[in-house]
Specification:
It is built from 18 helices and six strands. By secondary structure, the chain is mostly helical. Helix 8 links the parallel strand 3 (193-194) and strand 4. The two termini are 57 Å apart. Bound molecules: arginine (ARG). The site of arginine has 9 residues, from helix 6.
């Protein structure tokens, strides 16, 4: 029977099923490097304030270094009886250096320890997701120069709406991911606050220096209230929300490109290294990566839901329920990280079928709105212009023609003030070129956007 560090008051050994039920080391071992970083900073602070000698601190640091290396190499023995990563590291330290190791937990509880480890982990995870988001943005930006003159049909209600330049589309995704990055930065600020030194919940009567620990671990501030600090998992939920939103953005993109890569659309050829085949239909090249990026969004949203329900109604301060925060957090992170990595590769590797797109751009009356605006510029009230153009579209539809195929007489019949200048806004190229507003798909606006994104990344 492994001796429990908390066993002093107990008269019965722990039931084996309880050990299995309460353990977390099977998943929280992932925090080992952060746990050790936190312990080193804690020991150094204890030395500074005179609760450890310099020699004791050196022994502790040496022991922790060895433990870190053993875990790195996969040679560290984990066992359910030792509950969690914190007890594993501490027990192993005591095995190595004896009584000095028994001093490490001075002025510390696992409650402030796990909160600290998790904040260190989330901080690093945020930085990693931010870097992956930047790669996806770079993949989109990387397409823009060579596709600056490609016009795509833009959609609303998934019906053809107005023509847009392809880079305008790509940069729309960049904007979404940029907001995600801002959300991450904001979340990071609140995560980067030190709980250690809150001890179990009330603080400690020992003369510790929390600011010193914060500085050593790169925290911006020290948590102001010990009860809040050990109970707070807001930073986990905020990060999980941002991950869920990133997954939502990815799934929108994945859905779109799945559709665009069908024979029916034929806008896009996905890189074959990122497609898979069918076991029965030899001709199939399936967009499974995109489908799974879309599909895995479900579990990321589920993980956020799990966390929201987990903390509901928990009384202050630490409750063991909080141990259950890690599996959904880790899963959301792993899922989004790999999805972003694959998304960047797919974005970079896909090829637009320019010919197939151009061939069908003329369908769908994508220039109707620009024609309406042309009439507005000639003094026709918007509602009137809308009706006039609607009737012109109906006429063209009935004749199987494009708006630009209609003779001038038809336009003049619709509105006597119209002259041959009307043809200057008809057709997808001219409709795009006619755009003027800031943030529009006009070539100037798009070139300005591309330049801004290139300078940023
Ligand atoms: N494994 C626990 C967790 O992840 C560590 C804190 C346990 N504290 C306690 N007093 N039982 O939340």
């Amino acid at each position: 029977m492994a001796e429990k560090p908390w066993g002093g008051v107990f008269e019965q050994a722990t039931d084996r099923r309880v050990e299995e039920f309460t353990e977390s080391v099977s998943f929280d071992r992932r925090l080992y490097a952060h746990d050790i970083d936190g312990s080193v900073a804690h020991a150094q602070m204890l030395t500074k304030v005179g609760l450890l000698t310099a020699a004791e601190c050196q022994q502790i640091e040496q022991g922790l270094r060895e433990i870190r290396q053993e875990i790195d190499r996969g040679q560290f023995p984990f066992c359910t009886a030792r509950e969690d990563i914190h007890m594993h590291v501490e027990a192993s330290l005591i095995e190595r250096i004896g009584d000095v190791g028994r001093k490490l937990h001075t002025a510390r509880s696992r409650n402030d320890q796990v909160a600290t480890d998790l904040r260190l982990w989330v901080r690093q995870a945020i930085d990693e997701i931010d870097a992956r988001l930047k790669e996806v943005q770079q993949a989109f930006v990387g397409r823009c120069d060579s596709e600056i003159d490609v016009i795509l049909p833009g959609y609303t209600h998934f019906q053809r709406a107005q023509p847009v330049l392809a880079p305008h589309y790509w940069l729309a995704y960049c904007e979404k991911f940029e907001r995600d990055r801002l959300r991450l930065a904001d979340c990071r600020r609140r995560a980067n606050v030190l709980p250690l030194g809150s001890a179990a919940l009330a603080g400690t009567s020992l003369p510790i220096d929390r600011t010193d620990v914060a500085r050593r671990l790169g925290f911006d501030a020290v948590a102001a209230n010990s009860i809040d600090a050990v109970s707070d998992r807001d930073f986990v939920l905020e990060f999980a929300f941002v991950l869920a939103l990133i997954a939502e953005h990815l799934s929108t993109w994945a859905e779109e490109w799945i559709v665009w890569s069908t024979a029916e659309f034929n806008f896009l050829k996905l890189p074959q290294a990122f497609c898979t085949g069918s076991s029965i239909m030899p001709q199939k090249i399936n967009p499974d990566v995109l489908e799974l990026i879309r599909g895995k969004t479900a579990r990321v949203i589920g993980n956020l839901q799990t966390l929201l329900v987990l903390i509901k109604g928990l009384p202050l301060a630490y409750n063991r329920d909080l141990q259950e925060d890690k599996p959904p957090l880790f899963d959301a992170f792993d899922t989004v990280r790999v999805s972003l990595e694959l998304a960047a590769a797919v974005v970079a590797g896909a090829e637009l079928n320019r010919a197939a797109i151009a061939e069908r751009l003329d369908r769908g009356y994508l220039d109707a709105t620009t024609l309406m605006e042309y009439l507005i510029r000639r003094g026709v009230p918007q509602r009137t212009a809308h009706g006039l153009v609607g009737r012109l579209v109906r006429k063209a539809m009935d004749l199987g023609l494009r708006l630009s195929d209609l003779p001038l007489a038809d336009f003049q019949e619709a509105h006597p003030g119209l002259d041959a200048g009307v043809y200057q806004v008809l057709g997808p190229e001219k409709a795009v070129a006619a755009m003027l507003s800031h943030g529009s798909t006009s070539p100037d606006s798009v070139r300005e956007q591309v330049a801004r994104w290139k300078a940023r990344n």
